[in-house]
Amino acid sequence: MESSKILLVWTSPISDAVAQLFNNVSVKLSELIECITNNIMATDLFHLIIPLDSLQKLIEDPVYHFPQIQYIDVYFDDLDDPFGKQLYLTVLHDHRIKFHSIRDLPQRLCKIICDNAVVAISDSLCREIVYALSSSIEDRIGAKSASMLLRHCKTSKQFPLADLRGFPVKNIDEVHSDFKCTSCQLVFEQLYRLECGHRKCSICVKVRTKCAVCSITITPNRISVGDNSRQTTMKDEQAVCSNCDWSGSLGVYYQEHFKVKHQDLWTCFVQTSDCSNHAWEFNSKYSTTTLLDGTGIWRISDVDTLKKNPKKAIYSSPFYLFPGGYRACLKLYLNGNGQARHTHTSAFLVLIPGDYDEHLRWPFQYQVTFTLLGHISDKYNVSTSFLPDKTSSSCQRPLNTMNIPHGVVSCFSLDTLGKYRHHHVQDDTIYIKLQVNFCAEMPFASLMLGVNESCDDEENEIEKTVSKLLDDLLCATMKNTT
């Protein structure tokens, strides 16, 4: 009798090298159930690894109660529906079931394979599993994001998603309305059409509450994509480059010109500010940079000097995450903050009042990724992502100078930074890349333990003290008036 079988349900393509590490890899839950049924008399133990959207069907099937099923790992991603929260509470008593973020799954699978001795697994093979599954995970989340947008659109016809990246042009007022977003004023090949007839890009559809032209409320199920009646194409439009003297067709020629000549504009650089460590004293003398699509790079110099002051926090200059979008800055403790002090670098996103806040959706709820860039090769990049907690005050519309910082306390290991210093530090400078994914939102906070944290330092204590003093003052004033 075979002692154990590891069965995986994975709907995206997966390499043969990784698939052969499992006893069975199924595309559908029904295939996994059939495999269990056929092998139930010859197997002592089953270890199941399934997606969250398959758990309900598994619970309803008789095989769920088979004593041979002793472990069930359930993975979820950023786009899973909120029904998972209720499902989680339903099965909370079942000690066999463990929940994992899909981004933690590769490392989890390596451990499962090692523990069950399906095959002798080396460090190189473990890395192969991580790389193969990581690529497949991105494909899965991308496909799911596209599917969700399709469900929210009025038309049921399949269509390609609009490119998240728009192109700035100097003569935007002369460009046909079919190709320019009325909110961010960037040019796109494909735009979403609101019920009022005006057009927006995929980011503005997600984050804005009203049409920028007529102020009609945006209703997701009344958004359509594509317009068969369109009489013009991008190649018929003329463009003047926003950053040089180039002019020509707005179609592929301008897009290629912009990508080649102005690639740095995709990832705008933000500088370091010299503001103090207190949030309400944030220095406003810096002009606000505007990122094109939520991607920017923070250049941090004098790294050795900063490391000598373990409690020192530094801020970036302020920036808008995209034209007409959220305003924010970054905060970094190079030697860590709170429990991560002396072990990890702590990185936070800080929301700041902006000119467009009244038109944006609140709370802020989109996936944020910090990447410590390797200057020699991309393979030395180190990334950490988090999804903001929508219930936190850090993610609400900022009313004061800035919100409480929100991010990852244990972001980059100081051991790794020291060991591979020559890969990450050049001329006493490091580069941290920020990416905000406006297609990934927090579905339910209770399952995502430890994925986002607030800054734990003295300025938060000061803010709490100030808040209490204001409350006491208000109470005293009310007593005096009565």
UniProtKB/TrEMBL annotation:
PROSITE patterns: MATH (PS50144)
SUPFAM superfamilies to which the protein is assigned, alphabetical: RING/U-box, TRAF domain-like
Record's signal peptide: none
A Pfam family per the record: TRAF-mep_MATH
Sequence ranges assigned to domain MATH in this UniProt record: 293-436
Domain of life according to the entry: Eukaryota
One GO BP annotation of this record: regulation of canonical NF-kappaB signal transduction
UniProt-recorded name of the protein: MATH domain-containing protein
